[in-house]
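Fold sample X.
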Amino acid sequence: MAPRIKTRDRIVQESLALFNAQGERSVTTNHIAAHLGMSPGNLYYHFRNKQMIIAELFAEYEALVDSFLKVPEDRTLTVADKAHYFEALLAAMWRYRFLHRDLEHLLESDPDLAAAYRAFARRALLNAKAVYRGFVDAGIMKMDEIQLEALALNAWIVLTSWVRYLCTTREVAGDLSEELLRRGIYQVLALESGYLVESSRAAVEQLAERLYVPLSDIGT
């Protein structure tokens, strides 16, 4: 028999599902409590307000990205690692897509969350630069430090704005799929193509074929 999920964890999990499905602004603590079949007072015992639930979900997302966006300490990077990074990014973006969809509103509504996000963004950019530097050191990509910095920043801009872009192209803003997010990962791979070393191009092109989603499927 599977262990029973703690009430606090259930609140976090179901809030994530509701935020993803309906958008954070459409979901209140009363909606969450009703969805869970509990009284608002019981929910407030665990979380004083919705911002606390969002902060916990962001901490989960932050820890997840930190766990994979780094260079292995004991070996050189390979093209297979590029696929791993992209698949991990796709999974994180899909699981916590409401954070990307409602980011500006979330940060405006909670100064503490905004400060945490700024620190996360700085760290993620440093880690992304380290990963790209690892690909250069491995002979998979070729670029100087200025190009490397620009590529890391451009990749960050694409990934963090992709969900909001998709929402502008859909008849129903929340009508998203993991497949549509996959095209955003492909866009980053397209940014990298000019820096690939010829010997790694064939393997990366195979990865691009797996990630490609026609623009007609996005609605543009």
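Fold sample Y, listed below.
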Amino acid sequence: MDAELTRQVQELLAAPRPWTVTQVGEPVLRRPAARYDGQLPDDLLAELLDAMRAHLPGVGVGLAAPQVGVPLALAVIEDPAEVPEEIALARERPPQPFLELVNPVVTAVGDERRSFYEGCLSVDGLTAVVARWHRVQLAAADRSGRGYELELTGWPARIAQHETDHLNGTLYLDRAELRSLSTTAVYATHWAAPTPGPSAAELGFPI
């Protein structure tokens, strides 16, 4: 057990909800997270993962522990994919059931990439196009330490890559086509198409 991390998580769980998500510029987002190896009591780990999941509805589709200031290799993902059918088809975005990612590792399957706009709870108010692997193998464990492997495609693969990037100190901005960078308001006005083709043509970036 790690007494300092235990205290930190207890304070986080006692804080008002919804949490204020750590924003870009905070050092915790740029440091590789520590591999989870029993630093927290089992019941506290379970409470943390449940609270991270509870933070998602209406806010995002994934959350990594560093985004709430906890420097451990933990994340959760869940995506109800409540988007128009045209967008769901273009982005290959089926509903993604809840997953706990403890010490996750993502490995590309094949060499195909897809480019889409992406945002982040830790980069408030901005969005940009990111090329990500189209298909990946996810290896992780759940709160009980049971390992699992899944092959993910399309948007679920993107979510898994985004969250595991957080655990390596990487933000989507590091991988983005910077000419595509937009405020979320401008994106909603001009570029909210199923694919980034129109914005690529107008703003001058490759996809």
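Sample Y note: The first helix runs from residue 3 to 14.
Also: The domain at 3-115+132-169 is CATH 3.90.45.10 (Peptide Deformylase).
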